[in-house]
Structures are given as C-alpha cells and as structure tokens.
Amino acid sequence: MEIRLLKINEIDKLLDAIKRLWNPNHVYCRNPELLKYLIYNTPYRKDYCGNDENTSCYVVIDDNKVVGFEGLIPLEGNIFGESVSASTATLLKMDKNYKLAGIDLIETVYKNDQSIHVSIGTNTRALKLFSALGRYTFKDFPRWVWTNKFDELKKIFKIDNNSILNCLNWNISSNNILPKGSYDSFIEEEKWNKFYNMSFAKRTIGIKRDYKFLKWRYIDYPFFNYKIILLKDVEGNYKGLAVYRIESILDGKYKIGRILEFIYDDIDYGMNLCSKLQNEEDILFWDFYCLSSITATALEYCGFIRLDRNESNKMIPTRFQPIDFNVMNIMGAIRLSEDAKHKVNLVIDQQWYVTRGDADQDRPN
After folding, report:
1. Exposed/middle/buried for residue 263 (C-beta within 10 Å: 0-12, 13-18, 19+)
2. Cα atoms found within 13 Å of the Cα of residue 168, Cβ hemisphere only
3. Cα separation of 159 and 114, whole Å?
4. Can you list the positions of beta strands (E) in the chain?
5. Inter-axis angle of helices 11-21 and 32-39, nearest 10
6. What is the average pLDDT across 237-265?
7. Are residues 306 and 144 in contact, defined by beta-carbon separation less than 8 angstroms?
8. Which of 225, 219, 231, 237 is nearest to 274 (CA)?
C-alpha cells in the first residue's frame, strides 16, 4: 500500500474510486473535466507538486486500486496583508476496510504544513474528526438572503408565519441610496491588486483574492458564467467588487442570484454595490455565504437578513439542482499551522473572509 499524489494520466483510477466509494452519479464522474480543473488546472498546482504530471489529489493505492483519496486546491492565503501558503478541500473518502490508512492519508496531506486550509461542505463524521484534530469547525456556514418577491418566496418554500424570514416582507432595499462612483465589469490586474492588497487584505484573513485567484476561479471558469461588478471612484480607483451568477431553478420557472464575492472599501461603496445587484430584474431571491459578517454589514443595511442557525428553521434550501431539503446547513473546518495560530485570534472571528467561492461548493451538482 502506498500514499502519494495522483498523476494526471491516472485520473480514471480516481473516477473509479469515486464511483465505488462515494456515488456513481457524482458530478465528478459525470464531468471529469470539472475534477481536472480543480486538482490539476490550477494556478499554484505546479508550485505545490513540483512537476507537470502530478495532480493535487492524494490517493491511497493498494493492489493498483485507489482505496482512499483526499484532494486539495493549492492556493495563496492572506493574513492581514501577509501572503502565506494555503489550500482548500475538494474531496475526501476512504474505503471502510482501510480506516486506519485514513489517518496516514491525513498526515501525508498536511505534512507540508500550509498556513491555512479551508474545508467547506463536509459531513458530520468528518467534522468530528477535524474537531478532534484541533481544527476550528463550524456547523452553520452563515448565509444572508434578500428578496423583493416575498409572497412568491413564502408560497414556494412554505415559509411559516413564525420564521425570521418574514422580516423580508418589510421590503427594505437600497432604492434610496445616493449613487457613489461608477461601475465596470472588466478587471485590470494592477489596479485590482493595488486595491485588494492596500485595503481589503490588511483587515481580513482567508484565501487571497488577488487577480490570479479571480481569473482562475471566475473569469476563466468554464462551467458557469459568472458576472462581475466593479465599483470605481471618480478617479478610477477600485472601491468594491461583487461576483455573482444567475441560477435557474424549479424547471426554469424562477431565477435566483448567488453572490460569491462581496468586497468593498467602506459602507457607502458596499451599499452601492448592493444597489446594483438589487436592481437586477426577475430574481426570486439573492443569497451570500460568508464565514463572518465582515462584508455583510452593507447587505444588512440594504435589507438582507441572516438565516437562522437552526437547520430546521432555514426553510430555503441551498442546493437546487435538484432541490434538496435534507441538507440545509453547510458545515466546514479551518486548519491553521502553528505559525499561523500565533498571528490569528480565533476569538475575533469577524476578520475571516471565507465564501462559497473558496472551495468546490459553487459548482454544477
């Protein structure tokens, strides 16, 4: 038995393992190119793997067969403006007959000791393991929603009269906000990196949102059509960014807006970004996931509300292809290296900027 990085020409072995150990209809089995995009066609993979043949997925191989795997996406992290090594999770599964090898797999994956590792979309069993390993875990990935079509939303998802979601019926929005700056959809690399590094990065922790990340994650992403809103001041300096996509649900009867990035310099620019989103027509509702409320303040000023932490009170599902009422909470964990732990105060969790865009959660189902 051996544990090593999977080679790109062995991708069929991994797909076979996903079918056997996980789900024969998993999206990675139906769309192997998506899997390759996440574990091979990434901007930092070669730096991490050291060659052109390895993917960033570790596998446990016994008798020429994959019996366990853990994939990660090597990225660059940010701790208050300092660039550090980082990664996010893609997939994790072990054959039940090789449980002890699973510990060896985890030890092998993290021997490089990246400063930040983010896992989003894990299950209860894995969450208990991560907690035992000393990781910061969360059972409810915070989610904010807004609608100006509450009556339709209430009818579709059978929202009861005691739900906090009834606050959405107050129809608070950004209609009366004074315009500030101008909008664009084309990101200039130098200008964006200047804004991000000088402003947003210095007050946040997470995966680095420089141009290199945005280009790979959204601009070049071949499976979804992401839309970009840039907000600029009168001198043309960047002051905010929103990345989102429009998703059709319920056999194309409705459209929802999924916000993946919401970054701004100050509250006025944030509210103007929100105003631009809320003026998009025929959207049943908007949502945004972020580990902290560091950028949700502007959204809340414009009528977004955070969903109840209790899974049974959420009412609005997160997965729509197909619609899934069984999984309403997104769980996850964050691993910090010993060095990073000295730089990060976990008690102050409002400095984390971690969204669904960090990992493989916003993808075709």
Report:
1. buried
2. 28
3. 43
4. 2-7, 54-62, 65-79, 82-94, 116-122, 136-138, 143-146, 182-184, 205-207, 227-232, 238-249, 254-264, 286-289, 305-306, 319-320, 323-324, 331-336
5. 110
6. 96
7. yes
8. 231
Give the model confidence (pLDDT) of 113-123 as tens digits.
Answer: 899 999 998 88
Q: Are 233 and 239 in contact (CB under 8 A)?
A: yes
* CA atoms of 189 and 230, how far apart (whole Å): 12
Contact 56, 45 (CB under 8 A): yes
Q: What is the CA radius of gyration of the chain?
A: 21
Neighbour tally for 139: CB within 10 Å: 12
d(CA 224, CA 112): 32
- Tokens standing for residue 271: 């509210």
127-133: list long-range contacts, CB under 8 Å, 24+ apart: 127/331, 127/332, 127/333, 130/333, 130/335, 131/333, 133/106, 133/335
**pTM assigned to the model:** 0.94
CA gap 30, 24 in Å, rounded: 9
- Beta bridge pairs of residue 143: 289
Contact by Cβ (8 Å): 239, 269: yes
Tell me the three state secondary structure of residue 135.
coil
Angstrom CA distances, 310 to 40, 163, 164, 318, 329, stand at: 37, 11, 11, 14, 8
**Predicted confidence (pLDDT) per residue in 60-112, tens digit:** 999 999 999 999 999 999 999 999 999 999 999 999 999 889 889 988 998 88
Quickly tell me which residue has 């964050």 as its tokens: 334
Q: What are the C-alpha distances in Å from 65 to residues 32, 89, 111?
A: 18, 22, 24
Which amino acid does the sequence have at 241? L
